[in-house]
Structures are given as structure tokens and as C-alpha cells.
Amino acid sequence: MSDRVPPPAQRRALRELIAGDPGADPAAHVSSAADGAGAEGTPARSDPDERESDACLDAERIEDLASGADDPPADEHVEACSRCAALLEEYRANLQVLARVRLHDGRTKRATPHPARAADPRGAADASPPDASDAPDRIDGYDLGPEIHRGGQGIVHRAVQRSTGRVVAIKLIAVTARSGRRERMRFDREVELAARVQHPGVVTIFDRGLTARGRRFYAMELVDGLPLDRHVAETRPTTEGVVDLMIELCDAVHAAHRHGVIHRDLKPGNILVDRGGRPRILDFGLARAADRGRQGSEEQLTLDGEFMGTLAFAAPEQLAGNPERVDLRADVYALGVILHLLLVDEHPYDVDGALADAIERILHVDPPPPSSRRRGIDGDLDAIVATAMEKRPDDRYASVALLAEDLRLHRAGLPIAARRASTLHLVRKFARRHRLLVSAAALTLAALVAGIVGTSAGLLRAQRSAELARGALAAARAAELASARRAYAASIAAADAALRADSVALAEAALHAADPALRGWEWRRLAALLDASIAVDEAHEDWTWDLALDGRGELIATAGRDGRLFLRRLGDATTPLERRFTLSDRPASPADLRAVALGSDGRLVAVGDGEGFVHVIAMEDGRALASRRVHDRRIQSLAFAPSGVEGRPLLASAGWDGAVHLLAARTLETIATFEHPDAAWGVAFSPDGARLATMARDCILRIWNVAEGAIERSWALHPPDPEWRSVHWLRCVWSPCGTLVAAGQHDGPVRVLRVDDGSTKAVLLGHRSRARALAFSPDGRSLATGSDDATVRTWDLDRSEAIAVHLGQREEIFGLAWNPDGERLHAAGKDGELRTFAARHAGLVGRTLQLPGHSNQSIRALLFAEQGEVLFSGASDADPSLRAWDALDGAPLGRFEGHAGAVTGLAAIGPERLLSSGRDGRLRHLRWHRRADPEQPPPAPRPDDLGGTVASGPPPPATVEMTIEAERSFETPIVDLAVARPCGDGEGVAALALRGRGIELVDPRSLATRATIELPRRADAPARPRRAERVAFDDSGRVLAVGTADGALLRFRSAPDEGVARWRLELDRPCFDASVAALAFLPGSSALVAGSADGTWARIDDRGGSARFDGHAAAITALTLLDGGERVVTVGLDRTVRIFDRGTGTLLRAWGVESDWLFALAHDPHRDALAIGGRRITIEAGGDVRCVSVGHRAPRLASPPSAPAPRADPSSAEADQPH
Amino acid sequence: MSWETTTILLERLRAFDDAAWRDFSERFRTPIAAFARRNGLDAEAAQDVAQEALAAAAEGVRAGRYERGRGRLSAWLFGIAWNEAMRRRRDDRFERQSPSIAGRTTFFSALPSEAAARTAWDHEWERFVLDRCMSVARGEFTDRVLAIFDAVAIRAVDPALVAREFGVTRNAVFIAKHRVLRRLRELRESIEAEEAA
């Protein structure tokens, strides 16, 4: 940044920074007018001595004094100046705080010396000259051990951190004659950049500081392993093993790049392979920040023309000595060299000879393909090495991720991207470099052979062309697939973001754009969330202007722009369509029906049209009782009076002519008129019928005394909008108790007002646009609002907060009605559809259920049973009970005695039978039975203590009974449980991971031991028993996977003729840096997926090949597979649920379900539902499962009839028309 | 930006305020989990310990077992966290019994003493307090002032470079640095005073 004239915002900031208030800020007295001038754009002054003429010391000198600098004139001034003396004291205290802050801040660079102190031997420790000896030093908090490595920049010691006993590696800055500021800055940068990268493949930095002698040091993880080349030499991996190693290495380097760090010195000596077989990058001494803004002082660390790196692994552009030209593709080059070296055990170039020759070869000689030096190497690997080692960075892989992708494609046997480019490029490059030779040779060759091999050449060319075309096609397909996956992930992310913003239309568009071939659970889940209604029905072909419900909740009426009135009976699927009217004398161009009202006794329905007509129809026979034009312009609202006069029902109508008429409902005779200065939009009767609320275009809400025709009270809700002419309107509603009225404002808020004193009860903020549709709940405690933003919201009026946001309508909502039971809301609007929502749930019932869980304890195990209708759960130590839930509506079905410790496993072993295991070492075979209780009322929804709603109130009596069929105790905790699938008839086996005792296989019913499996010791740690953390069976029950605490995956197989007595180890593969936390086999395969406490997950194929992917920011705790194993779902301590594409590891969706750790997952394939266990249990359904709704008894609106509903033809409509 | 005092938070916790548990656990989870990690537990176990310790502490507050007059909150929380961490280690004794291997990381072989644990706790608590101070201070200064502070105080970038980068005088850089530091100091003192009250 070099702007000398800061923009206005910066100037404001600078004024705050510099001008200040001298009276208020003691520091300000040192900032003179000169600073203000600097703030206004003059170049910053760098010479502190300019302040000598000022009366007081500047801040820098005071800080120098506070830091112990020797400055006699300043000391003298301070003695004479009380303000500077006070500042000095303050600065000293500040610097003490700063020391503490720096101690705890991982980014802190301790050492950049202050210029003023750099030359001052009595300055801060940072600036003190380094100790010229390598004599043993002392570091607070550590016991320094022997030296284990010495390099150009530093010396590495083994050390023990006293507070924890942890063995670490400590790197001390090298002390040489050349040690200077540049070296110290470089050391600081190394720490800063290494600490930036958090990845299992990069060593972790723990601490940094100064030794007792003032030397810089940092403490890092001590990796117990061998340098990469020695590891390969000793273990002699196969080519596939080398490729797997390189993939992991590439992932680590890519992680560094993602954190903006270019290593610039990748070589086998800087890569240790730990005992788990994972490469770990260390030594970021030459690393550089990729972004210029953070790079900072690169020019200070590198002299022009200075070479940075190791020659044998340096990219051509590094030899130029211009660090600005070196980017992450230098690391790609180095990885290419390393891959070549590992494949053939030889460096691609001879770099041992004269330096000039070595440089010449690196700059100009193409490396020989690995296959030319060792047999059996695939041409793909030649192409990958060649592409990674291209001379021009532009010709290389653009990123390490692309290199890794090609290696993965190669491992998977798929066409690689580099192949085509490499082949053509080699030819092109040769021709370019040897143009004359090639031309001459080509001419000669052509002359010699043209006549001889014409036909053969043509054939060869054709074959070659076909081969190239096939390669190109395959590469194009792979690239296309990768691109399609990225595009798909982007569509999912866009849809997710749109849904979070309650924008259904945008989310729908994003989902529509997602490639149908790639759609999985995450797509179905988001698609389901687009519509949270529990029922949907087509209402009108065009806009539905209004909606009304009778007092008993049996009939619903809708009026539409298509000129039709629909009457439906609710809750009766057999008669979905009650009546359909066309109320116009112009059937070909019917007037739109703008308002509808139902009499409270259900006998009359009134409808108002766009030309000012009101039509009244008798419900019992559909006869039109009256039709009259009561307004000069269109009618906007109608309302029946709750009680009539002398048995005569009354009706009020509001019209754009400014009048509100009180009409005799059967004759439409005008009884009274309430005039408004502008168009009348809304009208509503008070519950006692004595008062009317009206809303008009002058934006005044008025309360009229019906008997006297006088205004009792009015509110100017907001300034009228002069632009409003014919498009917009708002309505008003009266609460059931008669004390409140509510109306929307054109700018979005909804105001709820007390009629008695005119005060405001609530202002409801949340809609992004005006709320035209309003309805009080039957108990008057809630208000539902439907807005032009296409959402329906339910509000708690006491708290002025939205209880629920209901998504589903695609366009503006014009009509809303609350069922008398208070459970359901009906909404209709511009999209022509009538939707019913569960009113008080968080908008997603049927797609999301929140179960209250176990006394606020972490859920540790979940199990779906009975085709997904019952869910069992077990929790942590504090509440180890077993609980059963109705998975369809969330009702608790039973609570049973559990374990004395955390429940660690639940598994079905047949119909109405399950196994449970606990940390208390108990294993139980339980038999359960669901007792039918159709009369049991569904639990009432209630808000919970985590800010959401739960589907159950106080738990009703249990309807699941459970008995213990068998029980067995082990001496050690059972940490995991798995059951081989074919066990319904008593066959099969259950595997228990016993802490400290390997695996025990038991009969799932009698619990008798059938076999034990002792885990093999690790070759490098034969004295240490391995600990099983997770177990899983494949579909056949013949393959058992075990995940261990040291991050390894073991796979055992039993021969079909040997039963479960003998299990042979067929795989023992280190996979993770921390314990295995979750395991799952792919359906019908012995390939599996595992997640780890180190936050990564991996897939392991049938042959043991593996690929590992970044997963969570914290430990993964559970994992399951969806869509036939194509999707991997994980939960973790970062409180998120994540879905990955198994093939590529691409993160497709991440979301949080509550603000706590998540420990358990279960998938119900019957309903495509996912149960997630945290403090509560969340069930999220993937597909369109409208059937699971608000309770057993919730009536459903029927779907539209399969055959199109009969449209009222003109002749039949005549009978319905008023005369 | 301001923060709710611990006194008020504990009062809410006592009153079973719905959000109090969440606020309480959010506030104190980090130092307890970090402390558990320092005591040799892995990430998952450390989170477990934090959860159990927080639940025990909340229960203790509600049951009146914590009295401000009898000691600092940090000391009381230390006791709970230490007990939970040790309980967890006892529970996981099978893991801890693996012998130490010469030349390898023997992470679990050296159980920290209570004195060492207290030192570790004090370290984590100080980090927690400073983080709180820093988060409050971040809401009180402009991004620019914070950026200058970050550069010159935290990253120790040469003040001349910072001044040039931000187009201000060196003096302004130092004033910005000490304004933020002074605020941090005030906040830290107020938290400590609140703790001691």
C-alpha cells in the first residue's frame, strides 16, 4: 500500500488515531500538529529527531525509555515534565501487558529489533547480539536435550516441556559470524509461516521465544520418523505405494499453499515420514508468503541475485535469483523431482558435477522419463513427472492440487490430464529447440520413405491420431467431470446460502442448476427444505388474492385472479373439492376476485371482485343470494360481522373508492358507510362486532365505532408512499380477544397495537418486504404474517420474536388463515398454490425434528429401528439411560435403565431386538416392543432451552417396552460395538472393541464368546499393545475392520468354511495421526471409509490403497454413508455436519444443527433421514417426506385429483352465477 | 462492544436463565479444554473434560457451592477442571499404562504434578483473559488502528515500515500502539478486579 492521500474513511480513522482529544488522552499530548499534517497526506516523517524542538518527547522516545534505552536528554526532560513522566510509567505498564499478549499470540514475532535499540547494546533482549557461542543454553519451561540436527539456519534439539512432560523438538537460530538482522527476520518468518499452516502433514509449532542468552527458538512437534528418501530406501514401497505417499505429500503442500505459504525448499531431507507412514513437512526456513500484502519484508531477506533453495530440487526460475518470480509452481517442480527420485532412486539430473553444468541441465535439459530408468513404470507417471518438471512454470501443473488430482486419477486407473499435453508438448518442444535439425531430417526422411511407406504411414498416422484422440477424450472427460463436480458443489453452496437467507426462489434456481447426474442426499435435503409445508394443493391457475377459513376449521375459501372462487373441505381426502364458482357475467374475461369472507356459522360466503361487485352465496345449496356493485372501484377486503343484527348477518366491504360499507349480507343493502380520504385496503370486525378496523392508502389505521359511525382511534403507521397507486395494499386484523389490532407497513415491519390506550404492543421486524397477509392465532398470543418476501412467519407477541419461518411459497403471499386448533396455518398468494404449514414449528417439521435428548448430555449412540419409525439413543456418563423416540413425530416412547457409564454402542440384531454396550463394560441383549396407543395425544410443541422448538412437551407414558434378554459384564469398557448383518435368525456375530483387550466376538443373543482377536503389535513398538477404538463389519459379515487409537486401520477376514473362529489379518495400514473415530464399509464391498480424531477422513479400497482428505477443523466423531456409499457424512467437535463426495473428497455441504459438539450419527434408508446427536437429537429428512408432519392425527390436505378438476364451463357456471 | 460481567453471568446461571448455560460454557470452555490438552488428553477427551467440568461448575454455582468471598473463580474452576482431567485419565488408564519407549515421544508417561498443572492453568487462564480483553478492544477501535497495533505490537514490524504502509507518522504509530495497550491493560485490570471482588 502506498497511497499518500488516504480515502475519506481512512482519514476519519486517522483523525481518531492521531488527532484524538489531548485532554482525554494522555498519549495525545505527544502527538503534535506535525502528526496531523502527516495524517492529511504529507509523507510520513521518519526522523524522530525532528521532535527535538518540541516541548515534550514523542511517543517513540518515551517507549524507548520505557524499554530501557539510554537517552540522557530524554531522561532529563522526563524529570522536569510530569506529563511525560506519567506517560513513561504508563508505557512501562503497557509494555508489560504487551509482553504477556505476545507470549500468548502465536503470530508474535519477537525479534524484529527496533532501529533505535538495534544499535543499543542495552536495548531489549530481542536486539541483543546473539551469543557467539553454541554453548548449552537455557529455555524457560523446557529441559533441553541433545542436538538432533544441525542445518544452515538452525540447530534442532530434543527437549521436554516441563509442564506437560511432552517431548518436543526445539530449533534454535544458528549462531554464526553471519548472523544478523536478516537471519533473525528469516527465522521469525519461518516460525510465522510454519505456524500458519495447520495440517496433519505439516509439523505443528507449539511455542516460540528467546533463550536465556537471547537467542530465538521455537518448539515444534517431534516427529519420530525418517527422511523421505531413507524411508523409501528402507521400506521399498511399490510404485503404487510411492504414488500414495506423493498424494499425501501433495495434500500437505497444497494445504500450505492454501494458507498462503510457498515452501521453496521441498526435498526429501525436509520431509520426514513418521512411523504411521505419513509424510510430514518441516523446515520452512526458505518459505515465503504467497500474497504480497503479507509477504512484507521479502526484499529485506533476499539479496538480488541470491539463490534460495537446494539446487537439485530448484525450479529453473529459482536459479534466476529473483524471488518475485518464484511462485507455488516452484513447489510443483520440486515435487516432480521428488516423485522422479522416489520412482527410480535416481535424481533426474546429474547435479554433482560442476555447478555451471548442473545449472545448464536444470535450465535447458529435459529430464529423462522415469520409465527409461526403471521398468514397470507407467507412461502416465512419465507424463506426470514431465508436466510437473516443465521448464516454464506456465507449462507445469498450475497447482499442487492438480498434480495430486492426476496422481489420484492414475491410482484409480482413470485417464490423467497430463498425458495428452505431455505427449504433444514433448514433440513440440523438441521441434522448437531443434528447428533446423528437425526440418532437415524431416525433408530427408520424407524423400527417402515417402514412396515406400505411403500406405503404412497413413495407417500409423491414423492409429496415432486415434490414440491421441482417445487420450484427449479421456482427459477431457476427466476434466469435465472434475469441473462438473466443482460446479455441483457451487450450486449446493449457493442453494444453501439462499435458504439461509429464506430465499426460496434463489435456492430453487441454484438446485435446478445442479447437475442431475451428481445429485445426492444433500441435494434432496435442500430441495425438501424449499417447501416446509405439510400439505400443498393447487388453488388457482393464477394469483390467489384472498383466503378465508370458517370458524370451525372445516372449510377454506380462496378467491383468485382467474375469476373463480374455490371452496374446499379440510381434513377429508375423499372430498377435496367442495365447490368451484365462476362469478362473472363475462366468462371469457372474468373479473378477478379480490376478496373473500366466510360467515362464522358457515352458511354464507361473500366474494368481492375487481369491479366493485359483491356476491353472496348460500353454502348449503351453492345458490347465489345476492350480487351488487357496492363500490365504484375494486373491492380489496371483506369481513363478516361476528354477530348480526336481529338475526341478519352483516358484511363489511372495503373498496378503492375510499368507502367501507356495512351491508346486510343476504341482500347487500347498504346500512352504513365509513368514508376514507383515500382507497380503503382492509377491513376487520372486532370480536364483539361493535368496532371496525380499517386500513387505507393514507397509511392510517382507524378504529370505528360501528353504531355511531365515528372514529374512536387512529394511528398513522408510516408516511404514505406517493408512488403507491394500484399495485400495493395492506390489510389489518383484529385479535380474538379484541384488545389488539395489527397491520403491516409498506417498509416491512408489522405493528401490533393496543386498542384501549393506543400504545404499541409489538413491532415485528424480520420480513424483507411488506407483510400483506396477517392472522392472529386462536389464542391471540401469536401472529402469523405472510409477506411479499414469500415467507410466512409466526411471531410470539410477548417477545416480539419469530417462532418460525415457513418456506414454500414461491411468490408474494396475499392470504393467510390460522386453523382453529392453532396448529396449522394456511397460506396462498401469487403462485396460485395453497399451502398448509405446522404453525409453531421451526418451519421444517416433516424435514427436521428436534428431540430434546438426554438431560442436556451428549448423545453418544443412535439407532434407527422398525423401518426407521423408532429411534433409540444413548448418551454420555451423566445420563446413560436408553431412550426410544418416535422418529416420525419426535414423541418420546420410553426411557429405560441403561448403563452405569456412557452408552458406546447400539446395534439391531433382529426384529425388536438390539444390543447395547457401555463404558461400564456391560453388554446387553434387549428385546423391545412398541405398544400401540392410538389414543395417545401427540405431544405439544414447546420452545426449548437452546432457542429452538422441540416436538414434544412433557413425555407421555412410554409406549415402547423393553426387557433384558441377556446381559454380560466385561472387566474393561466396551468402546464400540458392531454386528454382522445376517443375524436375524440367531446366526451372525457381534464384535466388541474392548479397551486394552482387543476384539471379542460374541453370539449376539446369548452373548457367549465365540472368538477373540488379538491385535497385532506394531513392528516399531512391539511392547505397546494396540488399542481398538472402532469396529465394523462389511455386508457379508466375513470382513471385520478395526480402527485403532494409533490411527491405523486393520482388516480381518474369515473364510466361509471356518465360521467366525478364525480371522486372518489382511490389512494393517497406518492412516491417521490420531485415533480412528468412525468406520463404515461401502455397501457390498470390503472397501471402507474411516474418520479420525485428527479431523481427516480416508477411503481405503479393496486392495488397501487409500486416499485421505481434509474433513473437520476438529476431531471427527462419527461417520456414515449415504447414496450407496457415494456420500460420506461426518460430524465432529467443530459442531458441524459435513457431506463429502467419496470419490473426490469434495466437501459438498457443511452445516451446524446446534451449538454444541456432535458425537453420533445414524441413517435411516427407509425415509432417507439422518439422525444427528449432540445435546439434542436432530432428524433431518432428505427426500420429500411430507407424510411425517405434526402428529399422528394431523389431517392432511389431499393432493390435487389425478384427473384435472372439471373447469366450470359457461353453461354449468350459469347455474352458479347470481342473477 | 462490552461484555457481561462474570458476576451477572453467574447470577443468571443461578436463576436458570435459558441462555446462561450457553453463555457460561462458551466463555469458559476454551481455557478448560486447553488446560486438559496440556494435561495429556487428546482433543476429544479434552472436550469431554471441558464439558463435564462446565456442567459440574454450573451445578456448583446453582447449588451455592461457589462463593466469591472464598476465592477467585479461576481457582475454583481450576479445582474442578483438574479433578475432571484426572478422573478422565484414571478412566483411560489402559491407554496410559503403555510403557515409555526410549527415544520416542512419551507423552503420557509423565503425569504432571498439581503444581505444574496449576502453572499450566494460570497460563491458559491468562490467555483466556487476554483473549477476552482483545475481543472487547477490537470492538472499540477502528480497523486501521487495530491493523497498526497488530503490525507494530504483535508482529513487531519495524515502525517505520508501518508508518509508511499506513501513510502516517512514526509517532502516530506509537500512539496507536499504546492506546490499544492501555485499553487492554484497563480491561485486564477490570477483569482481575472483578475476579477478586
Characteristic terms for this protein:
heterodimer; A: 1219 residues; alpha+beta; five-stranded antiparallel sheet; four-stranded antiparallel sheet; 68 strands; 22% helix; disordered C terminus; B: 197 residues; mainly alpha
Task: Report on this structure.
The complex is a heterodimer of chains A (1219) and B (197). In chain A, 22% of the residues lie in helices and 31% in strands. Chain A is of the alpha+beta class and 1219 residues long. In chain A, the strands form 18 sheets. A five-stranded antiparallel sheet of chain A has the order 1-2-3-5-4, with helices on one face. In chain A, strands 11-38-37-36 form a four-stranded antiparallel sheet, with no helix packed on it. In chain A, strand 28 (732-734) and strand 29 form a beta hairpin. The longest helix of chain A has 47 residues, at 454-500. The termini of chain A are far apart. Chain B is elongated, with a radius of gyration of 21 Å. The model of chain B is unreliable at 93-110 (pLDDT under 50). The chains are: A alpha+beta (1219), B mainly alpha (197).
